[in-house]
Design brief:
The complex is a heterodimer of chains A (385) and B (382). By secondary structure, chain A is an alpha/beta fold. Chain A is built from nine helices and 17 strands. Chain A folds into three domains: 186 residues, HUPs (Rossmann fold), CATH 3.40.50.620; 61 residues, Roll (SH3 type barrels); 84 residues, Beta Barrel (Elongation Factor Tu (Ef-tu), domain 3). In chain A, a hairpin with a 5-residue loop joins strand 8 and strand 9. In chain A, helix 1 crosses helix 7 and helix 3 runs antiparallel to helix 4. Chain A is globular, with a radius of gyration of 22 Å. Chain B is of the alpha/beta class and 382 residues long. Chain B has two domains: 243 residues, Aspartate Aminotransferase, domain 2 (3-Layer(aba) Sandwich); 129 residues, Aspartate Aminotransferase, domain 1. Chain B contains twelve helices and twelve strands. In chain B, the strands form three sheets. A seven-stranded mixed sheet of chain B has the order 1-7-6-5-4-2-3, sandwiched between helices. In chain B, helix 3 runs parallel beside helix 4. The chains are: A alpha/beta (385), B alpha/beta (382). Chains A and B meet through strand 2, helix 2, strand 3 and helix 4 of A and helix 9, strand 11 and helix 12 of B. Chain A: It comes from Knoellia locipacati.
């Protein structure tokens, strides 16, 4: 097959490209330039997409003897990932930009261009497995599964891929643990074998998300309100800087009366209010999520799944069903409560190790108990339109 | 590299010797360097003492621009640089550096749609400021991307009338066009070894003996006190051999390349793909466009898609544009010639040399329709 290996300049995508070549594919390395103002050299392990990273990727491609190109996707990345990130926070939600990037950059913009140029597929260094199975009609079905390395498993950020995208995706690292991949990189003579992993959000290299958002949205002072009493208990400089479940940075860690910790339990963007409450207000077991994507056919009845709401978060047994009137909407009932679930996060549904589908959380609630007025309020207010 | 140059190179490398030393092997190395200097001067219509060896075209351009600027600023207070907007980056970047960091002023000569710089424009610029204002005029002999040959002698004459030094980057011209330094009237001229089949890492700034230059780097002053560093005798030997051979073969090679170039351009235009040729092209004309240069614009395509698809089809070419952080940018040459960015993105530069054959042109032309169709689809997808 003719395959584009997306090469970030890191260890994982380098080994992924090498493995595709070993498997006999015709491989071309492509580095995505995602930033208009790429810094020349990195100062720490954070971030990615510098000129140094492009150089590292080129060095590996040269060593493998494969052609290498840099494709400029900065404009698309700005629009679909960075602008979306800002807009989501401004609307009181908590987005996952890596998931957006996989959905609209790596497996749409990159894949579409690759296919147009005559390639069959895109390979990346994500830790996930694609399992081919013969389906009911005799046709080959490709399933997305968790990686064998639970610490590195990235099936969560790939859960947004649909069957068509999955049919052209390769994840050659899913059957190996990260330490083994580093050993393999060293054995292959890659100079980047010891390069540190990248963490956090690549376009916020210093990790200060709130500061980065402030520089784009400006200060928007507002009130911090007690979710139970409705009383104004403090002030903030922009509700976009808060996310459900957050405890630090409120300026009021504990209530003066009861001495219990206080958490963000809701962000009400239209009124620019941050709602806080005690830990017991954070537990939710009902999710309403939209933007549903299925790795195959959408389920007809309520199905038994495991639900995961953040990268490397715990998986909770749950029931999921598609909304009767809107096929883009999924309702999820969790067997046990999850704390700190923010609208905007994605819920990825698993059947064993297999990814069934994903959706973006629009509202949360609590079954078997009358939801508190404010939480109910935040459910409606944060609903996606 | 040319066979003869490779042999001369390795032979001198085996012999060794430091041309700055006074002992026997040093004297022998110096003899080789000086004999090479004479041959190079002879091939370029210059005097041996006018040849200042450098590490290549980039250093020679930097020395011409920065060295002349510093000297002219000191002697008469002239602080303006005049250059064409289609210069190579080895001239553009030093000019911009002087403007941004050292208070220089610049007047860009804008070329016409063919890439020609107008002598009248230059006269106009020089008339308003004159020798106390303009430190240097720099216009390349022939453009590396679109192949347009400039009226160098007329430009040099206009500069001389105004009392302003004139520099020309002749890296692309040597070996393809008749280049005679003395007859051109230029004060400074850049040449490079590897463009004529010599080794990478050797070049020269040909400088009239009255040209005033402040050195870029100090330490030894081996070359006329303006360029320091132990000379690379082997590289210089190979440079001389390659240049002598290239100049001797020039006329027959130019005729052959012009015919190949014309068949490539005519073939591409005849494919009904909307392709146009940029720069100045007339079939059979070997003097106003570089004989080995074909530069095509393919509408609706990204240059790097074309590059990849042609490479996969076994055709090596270039988009003719610089990269920033590895990302291809539309060529500054095409933008300066007045092409909109969207047209400039579909640029394809094909250079023909002594190894190019009619079969290569055929292979390119037969691959092109499929390549263009795919590249257009990719352009629509992204």
């Amino acid at each position: 097959m003719r395959v584009v290996a997306a090469m970030s300049g890191g260890v994982d995508s380098a080994v992924a490209a090498a493995r595709m070549l070993d498997a006999g594919h015709d491989v071309v390395g492509v580095h995505l330039a995602l930033s208009r103002s790429a810094a020349t050299l990195r100062e720490s392990s954070r971030g990615c997409c510098t000129i140094e990273d492009a150089g590292d990727a080129r060095r590996v491609a040269d060593r493998l003897g494969i052609p290498f190109y840099v494709w400029d996707m900065a404009e698309r990345f700005q629009r679909d990932v960075m602008d979306d990130f800002v807009a989501e926070y401004a609307a009181g939600r908590t987005p996952n930009p890596c998931l957006r990037c996989n959905e609209s950059i790596k497996f749409t913009a990159l894949l579409d261009r690759a296919v147009a140029l005559g390639f069959d597929a895109v390979a990346t260094g994500h830790y996930a497995q694609v399992v081919e199975r013969v389906g009911s009609g005799g046709a080959t079905v490709r399933e997305l599964h968790r990686a064998v390395d639970p610490d590195k498993d990235q099936s969560y950020v790939l859960g947004v891929l649909d069957a068509e995208q999955l049919s052209r995706a390769f994840f050659p690292l899913g059957d190996t643990t990260k330490p083994r991949i580093r050993e393999e990189a060293a054995a292959r003579g890659f100079s980047i074998a010891k390069k540190p992993d990248s963490y956090d959000i690549c376009f916020i290299p210093d990790g200060d998300t709130r500061g980065w958002l402030t520089s784009r949205l400006g200060e928007r002072p507002g009130e911090i309100v007690d979710a139970t009493s409705g009383e104004v208990v403090g002030s903030h400089r922009g509700s976009y800087g808060f996310t459900v479940g957050q405890r630090r940075g409120l300026g009021l860690d504990r209530s003066a009366q009861d001495g219990d910790p206080r958490y963000v339990v809701g962000v009400d963007a239209p009124t620019n209010r941050v709602l806080i409450g005690t830990a017991d207000l954070l537990g939710v077991d009902l999710l309403r999520a939209d933007h549903a994507r299925w790795c195959g056919a959408a389920p007809v009845d309520e199905i038994r799944v495991g639900a995961q709401v953040r990268a490397h978060g715990e998986e909770v047994p749950a029931w999921a069903r598609v909304d009767e009137s809107d096929p883009e909407v999924v309702h999820v009932r969790l067997d046990s409560r999850l704390r700190g679930v923010a609208p905007g996060q994605s819920v990825v549904l698993y059947d064993g190790t297999r990814v069934v589908g994903s959706a973006t959380i629009a509202a949360t609630g609590l079954a078997g108990r009358t939801p508190s007025g404010i939480v109910e309020d935040s459910m409606t207010l944060t609903r996606r339109t | 590299m040319r066979e003869s140059a490779r042999e001369a190179w390795t032979e001198q490398a085996r012999r060794g010797g430091n041309a700055s030393s006074l002992h026997t092997s040093g004297r022998a190395a110096r003899a080789v360097v000086e004999e090479s200097r004479e041959q190079i001067a002879d091939a370029l219509g210059a005097r041996p003492s006018e040849v200042v060896f450098t590490s290549g075209g980039t250093e020679a351009d930097n020395l011409a621009v920065k060295g002349t600027y510093a000297a002219r600023l000191r002697s008469v207070g002239a602080s303006r640089l005049v250059a064409s907007g289609i210069e190579h980056h080895a001239v553009l970047d030093p000019v911009q550096h002087l403007v941004r960091r050292q208070g220089a002023e610049v007047t860009w000569l804008e070329p016409d749609r063919c890439g020609h710089v107008s002598v009248e424009d230059l006269r106009g610029v020089l008339a308003s400021g004159g020798a106390d204002d303009v430190a240097l005029v720099s216009v390349m002999w022939a453009n590396n991307e679109v192949g347009t040959v400039q009226p160098v002698a007329d430009l040099a004459a206009a500069a001389r009338e105004a009392g302003v030094p004139f520099h020309t980057d002749a890296v692309q011209a040597v070996g393809q066009l008749a280049v005679d330094f003395a007859a051109s009237g230029a004060d400074l001229m850049t040449v490079s070894a590897h463009k004529v089949g010599g080794p990478v890492g050797v070049g020269a700034l040909v400088a009239r003996r009255d040209a005033k230059l402040v050195p870029l780097a100090h330490g030894g002053g081996q070359e006329r006190q303006v360029r320091s560093g132990t000379l690379d005798a082997a590289g210089i030997r190979a440079f001389a051999v390659a240049l002598t051979e290239a100049v001797a073969e020039r006329e027959s090679a130019a005729a052959r390349l012009t015919a190949l170039r014309d068949s490539l351009i005519e073939g591409a235009l005849g494919l009904d793909l909307g392709i146009t040729v940029s720069g100045c092209w007339t079939a059979g004309d070997a003097t106003s466009r570089l004989p080995g240069n074909a530069h095509l614009l393919v509408p609706g395509c990204e240059g790097d898609s074309l590059l990849y698809l042609l490479d996969a089809a076994g055709v090596e070419c270039s988009t003719g544009s610089a990269c920033q952080a590895g990302v291809p940018q539309p060529s500054h040459v095409l933008l300066a010639m007045g092409y909109p960015e969207v047209e400039a993105r579909g640029a394809l530069r094909l250079s023909l040399g002594h190894t190019s054959t009619g079969a290569d042109v055929e292979a390119f032309l037969s691959a092109l329709p499929g390549v263009v169709e795919r590249a257009r689809r990719a352009s629509g997808a992204a």
